[in-house]
Design brief:
alpha/beta, seven-stranded mixed sheet, 5 helices
Length: about 170
C-alpha cells in the first residue's frame, strides 16, 4: 500500500512539474520547437506584413512599448549588434509596439535611435498570440527559416542576449 502511495505521489509530482513547464514562468504561451503563430502586422508606414510570408528568412520579433524602460535599454543593442550586422542577409526584424498609438511608437523610435521596422500591435492582440495578456515585455522571439521558434527571451540581460545573437548567427549560416 505504501509503495502504491509512493508511486501515486511520484506520478502527481511529475504531472504537476509537467504542468509548470507548460505554463511558462516567463508568461509565454509558446515554446521553443513550436511553429510560430501566424499574424499580419501593420508597419508604421502603413505597409502590411504577414509573418508566414517571411518563411525562408530568419526572423526576430521584439515585443516592446514606449513605457518599458528595459525595452529602451535593450533596443540600441538590438540595433547595433543584430540589425546593423544582419539586415542585408536573409534576416527580418520587427519590433511590435504593444497597444500604443503611432505617436508614442515614434517617440520610442526617436528616443532609442533604432532603424529597424516597428509594427503597431493594436490592443496587444499579436502579443497575446505569444504570451499571456498580463505578462510583461521586453521579449524576443527568434524563428528559423521554416517559421519554428528557436529562441525566446524575457527582459534583458547580457548573457541571454549574447546567446540569442549566437543562435541568430548560427541559423543564418544554414
Amino acid at each position: 500500500m505504501r509503495k502504491l502511495a509512493s508511486v501515486i505521489i511520484l506520478f502527481m509530482g511529475i504531472v504537476i512539474s509537467g504542468m509548470a513547464q507548460e505554463i511558462d514562468d516567463r508568461g509565454y504561451k509558446v515554446k521553443v520547437g513550436d511553429i510560430a503563430p501566424d499574424f499580419a502586422m501593420s508597419l508604421m508606414d502603413g505597409t502590411k506584413v504577414k509573418l508566414s510570408d517571411l518563411k525562408g528568412k530568419v526572423v526576430m520579433l521584439q515585443f516592446t512599448a514606449s513605457w518599458c524602460g528595459v525595452c529602451r535599454k535593450e533596443m540600441p543593442f538590438i540595433e547595433k549588434e543584430i540589425w546593423q550586422i544582419n539586415k542585408n542577409k536573409d534576416f527580418a526584424l520587427y519590433g511590435l509596439d504593444r497597444d500604443e498609438p503611432i505617436e508614442k511608437a515614434q517617440k520610442l523610435i526617436d528616443a532609442t535611435g533604432i532603424t529597424y521596422p516597428i509594427a503597431l500591435d493594436d490592443g496587444g492582440v499579436l502579443f497575446e498570440k505569444y504570451a499571456e495578456k498580463n505578462s510583461g515585455i521586453t521579449r524576443n522571439v527568434i524563428l528559423n527559416r521554416e517559421g519554428k521558434i528557436i529562441f525566446l527571451t524575457r527582459l534583458f540581460n547580457h548573457e541571454e542576449f549574447a546567446a540569442m545573437k549566437k543562435v541568430i548567427e548560427e541559423e543564418l549560416k544554414k
